[in-house]
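Just wondering, does anyone understand what follows?

——
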Amino acid sequence: MTTVLIIGGAAPAAAGFVRDICDRALAQFRARGVRVVLTDTAENLGAAPELVALADEVYELDYADPVACRLWAARYATRHRVDAVLGYREYAALSVAEVAAALGLKGNPPAAVLRVRTKDVCRGFLAERGFPQPAVRLCARLSEARDFLASRAGRAAVVKPRSGSSSEGVTLVTEEAQLPGAWEAAGGCTASILIEEFVRGPEFSVEGIFASGIPHVLAVTAKRTEPGTFVEAGHVMPAPLPARDTERIARDVRGAVSALGLKAGHFHAECWLTEQGVVLGEVHARQGGDWIHALLEWVHPGFELYGAWLDDLLGAAPPPPGKPLRGGAVRFLFAPEGRVAAVPDLAPLRADARVLAAEVALAEGDIVPPVSSNLDRHGVLVVGAHTAPQAERLCASLLPRAEVLPAVPACA
């Protein structure tokens, strides 16, 4: 029987889109009649008994440790056949690549994944090949970041960790006095960090999948951020762009992921559309987060994002779908600071066939935490409609029914 090994395939029910990814993927694999070997940390496995029950074998394994994953898989493969290896998390991408290479299976080359995950290396690699990139500098000392900011002649810059995701530790800096705080937030006290040019222009992300080594763009997504931050507040798919701009963005991203050496699975790339053209941002060897996976399966009726990946690894993938046929939208919830007096009953929203997901991450009596990254948001609403504009309007109209209101001062 065909066996698929999943690196980091469990998550607690409260993990939002991460758990939904695990649920969808495992269901799609099971529908193909394959034997599933599920690995993850003891904590994640213990918090996901429903997923554990669906697997044929389950093992504790740190998906973020490529060496440990490679050694474990090599030992496992001496006793059992493995036909494909997959993983959905940012921090599992290198482990998946290392295991696939060690077992002689189809996947991304580890060097390509490492290149993509090291942001400044990725920037330099693409710039050398003619892809417009923000100017960037790797800084081991705060003085180096000061020099870069001074060279920008008053223009804003972004301070961020060298690797990571979810906007953690990312700060917009407009003056030198802001640098020490941004440096600390990015982890500069213990590791080198990046400072790069702040690109002005509407931001998009590009979602795609490889089939027989060829990248296919599934959709371009419009992004909304909270004012003054890099925290993402919402998405619309497909982005409301002229066809020529959509194709220009898709063409550049297809070229970039191919140049970087990626060959299999999903890809997610960020970009800006500026007066000078498309400027590429970060590239990831995984699907987009923030419920983008659910939007993709909605806008492409009948398409299975994870089943298609497995089909390709096994050499049996049909051609990916063409242009999106429907529209979807995501809006995140941001509760006012204070103590939560009440949370909404989401059951009516979840019963609405147009609602793909509705979640609130707070409970009555909670102190609302500040939002500094995508991991801190207070809830989400995901909807599907016939078109993207309809989905955006629907999301806006339903959002008040999911808001955490009222909140009273924390000292009350």
Observations:
- Residues 10 and 44 are 6 Å apart (CA to CA).
- The two ends are 61 Å apart (CA to CA).
- The longest strand covers residues 214-225.
